[in-house]
Write a sequence for this structure.
Protein backbone atom coordinates (compact mmCIF):
# COMPACT_ATOMS: atom_id res chain seq x y z
CA UNK A 1 0.00 0.00 0.00
CA UNK A 2 1.34 3.40 -0.94
CA UNK A 3 0.93 6.18 1.57
CA UNK A 4 0.14 9.56 -0.02
CA UNK A 5 0.01 12.67 2.16
CA UNK A 6 -3.23 13.35 4.04
CA UNK A 7 -3.70 16.52 1.96
CA UNK A 8 -4.42 14.28 -1.03
CA UNK A 9 -7.62 13.15 0.66
CA UNK A 10 -8.76 16.77 0.89
CA UNK A 11 -8.16 17.91 -2.67
CA UNK A 12 -11.29 18.34 -4.79
CA UNK A 13 -11.75 18.73 -8.52
CA UNK A 14 -13.49 20.74 -11.22
CA UNK A 15 -16.32 18.52 -12.35
CA UNK A 16 -16.69 20.41 -15.65
CA UNK A 17 -13.77 18.29 -16.86
CA UNK A 18 -15.53 15.08 -15.78
CA UNK A 19 -18.76 16.12 -17.52
CA UNK A 20 -16.72 16.94 -20.63
CA UNK A 21 -15.14 13.47 -20.58
CA UNK A 22 -18.56 11.80 -20.12
CA UNK A 23 -20.05 13.91 -22.94
CA UNK A 24 -17.18 12.90 -25.23
CA UNK A 25 -17.63 9.23 -24.28
CA UNK A 26 -21.36 9.41 -25.12
CA UNK A 27 -20.54 11.11 -28.43
CA UNK A 28 -18.06 8.34 -29.21
CA UNK A 29 -20.96 5.88 -28.77
CA UNK A 30 -22.86 7.80 -31.46
CA UNK A 31 -25.06 9.92 -29.16
CA UNK A 32 -25.76 13.55 -30.04
CA UNK A 33 -24.70 15.82 -27.17
CA UNK A 34 -25.03 19.60 -27.02
CA UNK A 35 -22.34 20.86 -24.70
CA UNK A 36 -23.28 23.72 -22.41
CA UNK A 37 -20.95 22.32 -19.77
CA UNK A 38 -17.34 23.39 -20.13
CA UNK A 39 -16.49 27.08 -19.72
CA UNK A 40 -14.42 27.92 -22.72
CA UNK A 41 -15.04 30.18 -25.72
CA UNK A 42 -16.06 28.20 -28.80
CA UNK A 43 -14.01 30.59 -30.94
CA UNK A 44 -10.59 29.96 -32.41
CA UNK A 45 -7.65 32.00 -31.13
CA UNK A 46 -7.34 35.00 -33.52
CA UNK A 47 -4.98 34.25 -36.42
CA UNK A 48 -2.43 36.99 -35.69
CA UNK A 49 -1.90 35.51 -32.21
CA UNK A 50 -1.36 32.01 -33.61
CA UNK A 51 1.06 33.45 -36.17
CA UNK A 52 3.11 35.12 -33.42
CA UNK A 53 3.58 31.74 -31.72
CA UNK A 54 4.51 30.00 -34.98
CA UNK A 55 6.98 32.79 -35.76
CA UNK A 56 8.49 32.51 -32.26
CA UNK A 57 9.14 28.80 -32.83
CA UNK A 58 10.60 29.49 -36.29
CA UNK A 59 12.77 32.28 -34.87
CA UNK A 60 14.30 29.83 -32.45
CA UNK A 61 12.58 30.82 -29.20
CA UNK A 62 12.93 27.30 -27.89
CA UNK A 63 14.62 27.78 -24.56
CA UNK A 64 13.72 28.79 -21.04
CA UNK A 65 12.56 32.36 -20.60
CA UNK A 66 12.98 34.38 -17.40
CA UNK A 67 10.91 32.61 -14.73
CA UNK A 68 8.56 35.57 -14.33
CA UNK A 69 8.00 35.93 -18.09
CA UNK A 70 9.56 37.65 -21.10
CA UNK A 71 10.13 41.33 -20.18
CA UNK A 72 8.20 42.52 -23.28
CA UNK A 73 5.22 40.44 -22.18
CA UNK A 74 5.24 41.79 -18.64
CA UNK A 75 5.48 45.31 -20.03
CA UNK A 76 2.57 44.57 -22.37
CA UNK A 77 0.52 43.34 -19.38
CA UNK A 78 1.29 46.53 -17.45
CA UNK A 79 0.38 48.70 -20.46
CA UNK A 80 -2.85 46.75 -20.98
CA UNK A 81 -3.89 47.22 -17.33
CA UNK A 82 -3.14 50.93 -17.54
CA UNK A 83 -5.18 51.21 -20.76
CA UNK A 84 -8.15 49.20 -19.51
CA UNK A 85 -8.28 50.01 -15.82
CA UNK A 86 -6.29 53.21 -15.52
CA UNK A 87 -3.98 51.69 -12.92
CA UNK A 88 -0.21 51.90 -12.94
CA UNK A 89 1.49 48.52 -12.62
CA UNK A 90 5.20 47.82 -12.23
CA UNK A 91 6.08 45.11 -14.81
CA UNK A 92 8.40 43.60 -12.20
CA UNK A 93 5.35 42.74 -10.10
CA UNK A 94 3.79 40.76 -12.97
CA UNK A 95 4.30 37.00 -12.82
CA UNK A 96 3.38 35.17 -16.03
CA UNK A 97 2.16 31.64 -15.29
CA UNK A 98 0.68 28.66 -17.18
CA UNK A 99 -3.00 29.68 -16.95
CA UNK A 100 -5.19 31.69 -14.61
CA UNK A 101 -5.42 28.82 -12.14
CA UNK A 102 -1.75 28.95 -11.20
CA UNK A 103 -1.98 32.40 -9.58
CA UNK A 104 -4.87 31.03 -7.51
CA UNK A 105 -2.89 27.95 -6.50
CA UNK A 106 0.16 30.00 -5.52
CA UNK A 107 -1.85 32.55 -3.54
CA UNK A 108 -3.61 29.86 -1.53
CA UNK A 109 -0.38 27.88 -0.97
CA UNK A 110 1.27 31.07 0.22
CA UNK A 111 -1.35 31.78 2.90
CA UNK A 112 -3.00 28.43 3.60
CA UNK A 113 -1.98 26.21 6.50
CA UNK A 114 -3.76 24.61 9.44
CA UNK A 115 -5.22 27.30 11.68
CA UNK A 116 -5.54 29.83 8.86
CA UNK A 117 -8.92 30.84 7.47
CA UNK A 118 -9.50 31.68 3.82
CA UNK A 119 -12.79 33.20 2.65
CA UNK A 120 -14.13 32.23 -0.76
CA UNK A 121 -17.36 32.72 -2.74
CA UNK A 122 -19.89 29.88 -2.69
CA UNK A 123 -21.21 29.05 -5.25
CA UNK A 124 -17.84 29.80 -6.80
CA UNK A 125 -15.09 28.40 -8.98
CA UNK A 126 -14.64 24.91 -7.44
CA UNK A 127 -10.87 25.06 -7.31
CA UNK A 128 -11.00 27.77 -4.61
CA UNK A 129 -12.52 25.45 -2.02
CA UNK A 130 -10.46 22.50 -3.21
CA UNK A 131 -7.05 24.11 -2.84
CA UNK A 132 -7.93 25.82 0.42
CA UNK A 133 -8.77 22.38 1.84
CA UNK A 134 -5.61 20.94 0.28
CA UNK A 135 -3.50 23.62 1.99
CA UNK A 136 -4.89 22.62 5.39
CA UNK A 137 -6.55 26.00 5.94
CA UNK A 138 -10.22 26.32 6.88
CA UNK A 139 -12.37 27.23 3.89
CA UNK A 140 -14.91 29.83 5.02
CA UNK A 141 -17.72 30.22 2.46
CA UNK A 142 -19.15 33.60 1.54
CA UNK A 143 -22.68 32.58 0.52
CA UNK A 144 -23.85 34.28 -2.67
CA UNK A 145 -27.60 34.65 -2.88
CA UNK A 146 -29.91 34.81 -5.85
CA UNK A 147 -31.94 37.62 -4.23
CA UNK A 148 -28.76 39.71 -4.32
CA UNK A 149 -28.11 38.77 -7.96
CA UNK A 150 -25.34 36.45 -6.66
CA UNK A 151 -23.22 39.57 -6.17
CA UNK A 152 -20.72 39.78 -3.33
CA UNK A 153 -21.98 41.74 -0.33
CA UNK A 154 -19.13 43.67 1.30
CA UNK A 155 -20.93 43.42 4.62
CA UNK A 156 -21.13 39.61 4.35
CA UNK A 157 -17.41 39.40 3.63
CA UNK A 158 -16.30 41.81 6.33
CA UNK A 159 -18.47 40.09 8.96
CA UNK A 160 -16.57 36.84 8.39
CA UNK A 161 -13.09 38.25 8.98
CA UNK A 162 -11.40 37.00 12.16
CA UNK A 163 -7.82 37.33 13.45
CA UNK A 164 -7.17 33.97 11.70
CA UNK A 165 -8.27 35.24 8.27
CA UNK A 166 -5.30 35.32 5.92
CA UNK A 167 -6.81 35.63 2.46
CA UNK A 168 -10.11 36.54 0.83
CA UNK A 169 -10.94 35.37 -2.67
CA UNK A 170 -13.06 37.75 -4.70
CA UNK A 171 -14.35 37.02 -8.20
CA UNK A 172 -16.25 39.41 -10.45
CA UNK A 173 -17.53 38.85 -13.10
CA UNK A 174 -18.12 35.47 -11.55
CA UNK A 175 -18.12 31.83 -12.44
CA UNK A 176 -20.61 30.06 -12.21
CA UNK A 177 -23.29 32.74 -11.88
CA UNK A 178 -22.19 35.41 -14.37
CA UNK A 179 -22.80 37.88 -11.57
CA UNK A 180 -21.03 41.24 -11.53
CA UNK A 181 -20.48 42.96 -8.20
CA UNK A 182 -21.32 46.67 -8.56
CA UNK A 183 -18.55 49.25 -8.32
CA UNK A 184 -20.08 50.81 -5.15
CA UNK A 185 -19.97 47.41 -3.43
CA UNK A 186 -16.37 46.83 -4.55
CA UNK A 187 -15.49 50.26 -3.13
CA UNK A 188 -17.26 49.38 0.12
CA UNK A 189 -15.29 46.14 0.33
CA UNK A 190 -12.00 47.95 -0.28
CA UNK A 191 -12.84 50.56 2.37
CA UNK A 192 -13.75 47.82 4.87
CA UNK A 193 -10.60 45.83 4.10
CA UNK A 194 -8.51 48.89 4.84
CA UNK A 195 -9.45 48.25 8.50
CA UNK A 196 -8.03 44.69 8.37
CA UNK A 197 -4.36 45.07 7.46
CA UNK A 198 -3.61 41.39 8.18
CA UNK A 199 -5.78 40.20 5.28
CA UNK A 200 -4.66 39.72 1.67
CA UNK A 201 -7.09 39.55 -1.27
CA UNK A 202 -6.95 37.43 -4.38
CA UNK A 203 -9.05 39.21 -6.98
CA UNK A 204 -9.91 36.79 -9.77
CA UNK A 205 -10.72 39.08 -12.69
CA UNK A 206 -10.34 36.54 -15.50
CA UNK A 207 -13.72 37.58 -16.99
CA UNK A 208 -12.99 41.32 -16.71
CA UNK A 209 -13.57 41.93 -20.41
CA UNK A 210 -16.79 39.95 -20.66
CA UNK A 211 -19.37 42.45 -19.52
CA UNK A 212 -22.82 43.28 -20.91
CA UNK A 213 -25.30 46.15 -21.12
CA UNK A 214 -22.56 48.79 -21.01
CA UNK A 215 -21.09 47.68 -17.68
CA UNK A 216 -17.52 48.70 -16.92
CA UNK A 217 -15.10 46.56 -15.01
CA UNK A 218 -14.51 47.50 -11.36
CA UNK A 219 -11.07 46.19 -10.38
CA UNK A 220 -9.88 45.80 -6.79
CA UNK A 221 -6.52 47.04 -8.03
CA UNK A 222 -8.02 50.53 -8.06
CA UNK A 223 -7.88 51.14 -4.34
CA UNK A 224 -4.60 52.56 -2.99
CA UNK A 225 -5.64 51.79 0.60
CA UNK A 226 -5.40 48.03 -0.08
CA UNK A 227 -3.19 47.90 -3.16
CA UNK A 228 -0.23 46.52 -1.21
CA UNK A 229 -2.35 43.47 -0.31
CA UNK A 230 -4.14 42.70 -3.57
CA UNK A 231 -3.12 39.85 -5.85
CA UNK A 232 -4.73 40.30 -9.26
CA UNK A 233 -5.47 37.16 -11.29
CA UNK A 234 -6.10 37.52 -15.00
CA UNK A 235 -4.99 35.86 -18.22
CA UNK A 236 -5.59 35.14 -21.84
CA UNK A 237 -7.79 32.02 -21.68
CA UNK A 238 -11.22 33.63 -21.85
CA UNK A 239 -10.51 37.05 -23.39
CA UNK A 240 -8.53 35.77 -26.36
CA UNK A 241 -10.03 32.26 -26.65
CA UNK A 242 -6.72 30.72 -25.52
CA UNK A 243 -7.75 28.15 -22.92
CA UNK A 244 -5.47 25.43 -24.31
CA UNK A 245 -2.38 27.63 -24.53
CA UNK A 246 -2.06 27.79 -20.75
CA UNK A 247 -1.15 31.42 -20.26
CA UNK A 248 -2.15 33.66 -17.38
CA UNK A 249 -0.65 36.22 -15.03
CA UNK A 250 -0.75 37.57 -11.53
CA UNK A 251 0.07 41.08 -10.39
CA UNK A 252 1.56 40.60 -6.94
CA UNK A 253 2.14 43.00 -4.07
CA UNK A 254 5.80 43.95 -3.65
CA UNK A 255 6.01 42.00 -0.38
CA UNK A 256 4.85 38.76 -2.07
CA UNK A 257 6.41 38.76 -5.55
CA UNK A 258 9.65 37.11 -4.47
CA UNK A 259 7.77 34.22 -2.84
CA UNK A 260 5.50 33.86 -5.87
CA UNK A 261 8.56 33.71 -8.15
CA UNK A 262 10.08 31.02 -5.99
CA UNK A 263 6.89 28.97 -6.25
CA UNK A 264 7.08 29.37 -10.05
CA UNK A 265 10.73 28.32 -10.17
CA UNK A 266 9.99 25.32 -7.96
CA UNK A 267 6.94 24.37 -9.99
CA UNK A 268 7.21 25.09 -13.72
CA UNK A 269 10.37 27.21 -14.32
CA UNK A 270 8.62 29.39 -16.91
CA UNK A 271 5.72 29.34 -19.35
CA UNK A 272 6.51 27.86 -22.78
CA UNK A 273 8.12 30.56 -24.90
CA UNK A 274 5.82 30.54 -27.98
CA UNK A 275 2.73 31.01 -25.81
CA UNK A 276 4.35 34.07 -24.28
CA UNK A 277 5.11 35.55 -27.71
CA UNK A 278 1.48 34.87 -28.61
CA UNK A 279 0.48 36.70 -25.43
CA UNK A 280 2.40 39.78 -26.54
CA UNK A 281 0.61 39.73 -29.91
CA UNK A 282 -2.73 39.38 -28.13
CA UNK A 283 -2.20 42.40 -25.92
CA UNK A 284 -0.48 44.68 -28.40
CA UNK A 285 -2.42 43.72 -31.55
CA UNK A 286 -5.96 44.60 -32.66
CA UNK A 287 -8.65 44.16 -29.99
CA UNK A 288 -11.53 43.82 -32.48
CA UNK A 289 -11.61 40.02 -32.19
CA UNK A 290 -12.25 40.41 -28.45
CA UNK A 291 -15.08 42.90 -29.05
CA UNK A 292 -16.61 40.67 -31.72
CA UNK A 293 -16.52 37.64 -29.44
CA UNK A 294 -18.10 39.56 -26.56
CA UNK A 295 -20.81 40.86 -28.93
CA UNK A 296 -21.55 37.25 -29.95
CA UNK A 297 -21.78 36.23 -26.28
CA UNK A 298 -24.14 39.14 -25.62
CA UNK A 299 -26.48 37.93 -28.37
CA UNK A 300 -26.36 34.35 -27.08
CA UNK A 301 -26.99 35.55 -23.56
CA UNK A 302 -30.27 37.12 -24.69
CA UNK A 303 -31.29 33.85 -26.32
CA UNK A 304 -30.40 31.62 -23.38
CA UNK A 305 -32.14 33.87 -20.82
CA UNK A 306 -35.26 34.14 -22.98
CA UNK A 307 -35.33 30.37 -23.49
CA UNK A 308 -34.73 29.59 -19.82
CA UNK A 309 -37.54 31.86 -18.68
CA UNK A 310 -39.85 30.33 -21.29
CA UNK A 311 -39.25 26.88 -19.75
CA UNK A 312 -41.69 25.72 -17.07
CA UNK A 313 -39.83 25.06 -13.83
CA UNK A 314 -36.80 27.24 -14.65
CA UNK A 315 -36.12 30.94 -14.03
CA UNK A 316 -33.03 33.03 -14.59
CA UNK A 317 -32.17 36.71 -14.25
CA UNK A 318 -29.82 38.11 -16.93
CA UNK A 319 -26.23 37.81 -15.69
CA UNK A 320 -24.01 40.88 -16.09
CA UNK A 321 -20.84 39.16 -17.29
CA UNK A 322 -18.83 36.04 -18.19
CA UNK A 323 -20.64 33.46 -20.36
CA UNK A 324 -22.69 31.54 -17.84
CA UNK A 325 -26.36 31.39 -16.93
CA UNK A 326 -27.28 30.02 -13.50
CA UNK A 327 -30.99 29.25 -13.58
CA UNK A 328 -33.03 28.38 -10.51
CA UNK A 329 -34.25 24.78 -10.96
CA UNK A 330 -36.07 24.25 -7.65
CA UNK A 331 -39.50 24.20 -9.28
CA UNK A 332 -38.50 21.14 -11.31
CA UNK A 333 -38.27 19.22 -8.01
CA UNK A 334 -35.05 17.57 -9.21
CA UNK A 335 -31.83 18.01 -7.19
CA UNK A 336 -29.03 19.70 -9.13
CA UNK A 337 -26.69 16.71 -9.52
CA UNK A 338 -29.52 14.40 -10.57
CA UNK A 339 -30.70 16.95 -13.13
CA UNK A 340 -27.14 17.29 -14.51
CA UNK A 341 -26.82 13.51 -14.92
CA UNK A 342 -30.31 12.99 -16.39
CA UNK A 343 -30.01 15.90 -18.83
CA UNK A 344 -26.72 14.48 -20.09
CA UNK A 345 -27.71 10.82 -20.22
CA UNK A 346 -31.35 11.16 -21.27
CA UNK A 347 -31.69 14.54 -23.00
CA UNK A 348 -28.20 14.77 -24.52
CA UNK A 349 -27.35 18.17 -22.99
CA UNK A 350 -24.21 18.73 -20.93
CA UNK A 351 -24.67 21.20 -18.05
CA UNK A 352 -23.05 21.44 -14.62
CA UNK A 353 -24.89 21.01 -11.31
CA UNK A 354 -24.83 24.11 -9.12
CA UNK A 355 -23.51 21.92 -6.29
CA UNK A 356 -20.28 21.44 -8.26
CA UNK A 357 -19.58 25.03 -7.22
CA UNK A 358 -20.25 24.52 -3.53
CA UNK A 359 -23.13 23.66 -1.27
CA UNK A 360 -24.89 26.98 -1.84
CA UNK A 361 -25.25 25.97 -5.48
CA UNK A 362 -28.05 23.48 -4.72
CA UNK A 363 -31.19 24.43 -6.62
CA UNK A 364 -29.26 25.76 -9.62
CA UNK A 365 -27.64 24.56 -12.81
CA UNK A 366 -24.80 26.20 -14.73
CA UNK A 367 -25.17 26.57 -18.47
CA UNK A 368 -22.21 27.88 -20.44
CA UNK A 369 -23.49 29.77 -23.46
CA UNK A 370 -20.13 29.62 -25.21
CA UNK A 371 -21.93 27.74 -27.98
CA UNK A 372 -23.79 28.72 -31.16
CA UNK A 373 -27.33 30.17 -31.02
CA UNK A 374 -28.57 27.11 -32.93
CA UNK A 375 -27.00 24.77 -30.39
CA UNK A 376 -28.35 26.80 -27.47
CA UNK A 377 -31.87 26.63 -28.95
CA UNK A 378 -31.48 22.90 -29.58
CA UNK A 379 -30.23 22.31 -26.02
CA UNK A 380 -33.14 24.27 -24.57
CA UNK A 381 -35.66 22.40 -26.73
CA UNK A 382 -34.23 19.11 -25.44
CA UNK A 383 -34.35 20.31 -21.82
CA UNK A 384 -37.97 21.47 -22.25
CA UNK A 385 -38.98 18.16 -23.81
CA UNK A 386 -37.25 16.19 -21.04
CA UNK A 387 -38.94 18.24 -18.29
CA UNK A 388 -42.36 17.93 -19.99
CA UNK A 389 -41.98 14.18 -20.29
CA UNK A 390 -41.02 13.94 -16.63
CA UNK A 391 -44.03 16.02 -15.59
CA UNK A 392 -46.31 13.82 -17.69
CA UNK A 393 -44.91 10.60 -16.18
C1 LIG B 1 -13.25 32.18 -12.17
C2 LIG B 1 -12.15 31.49 -12.90
N1 LIG B 1 -10.89 31.73 -12.56
C3 LIG B 1 -9.86 31.14 -13.16
C4 LIG B 1 -10.07 30.24 -14.18
C5 LIG B 1 -8.88 29.51 -14.75
O1 LIG B 1 -8.53 29.89 -16.01
P1 LIG B 1 -7.35 29.16 -16.79
O2 LIG B 1 -7.99 28.21 -17.74
O3 LIG B 1 -6.62 30.28 -17.46
O4 LIG B 1 -6.48 28.47 -15.80
C6 LIG B 1 -11.36 29.95 -14.59
C7 LIG B 1 -11.60 28.96 -15.66
O5 LIG B 1 -12.66 28.45 -15.88
C8 LIG B 1 -12.43 30.60 -13.95
O6 LIG B 1 -13.71 30.36 -14.29
Amino acid sequence: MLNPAAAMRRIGTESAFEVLARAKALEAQGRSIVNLGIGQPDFQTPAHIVEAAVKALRDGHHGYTPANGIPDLREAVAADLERRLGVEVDPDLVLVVPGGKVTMFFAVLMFGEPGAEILYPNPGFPIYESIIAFSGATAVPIPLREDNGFAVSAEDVLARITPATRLIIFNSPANPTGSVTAREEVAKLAAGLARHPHVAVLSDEIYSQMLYDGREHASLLHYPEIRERVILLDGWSKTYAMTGWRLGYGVWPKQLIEGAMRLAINCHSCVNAPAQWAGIAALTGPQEPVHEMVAAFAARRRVVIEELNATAGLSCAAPGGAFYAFPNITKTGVPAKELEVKLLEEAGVATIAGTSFGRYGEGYLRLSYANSVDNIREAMARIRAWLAERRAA
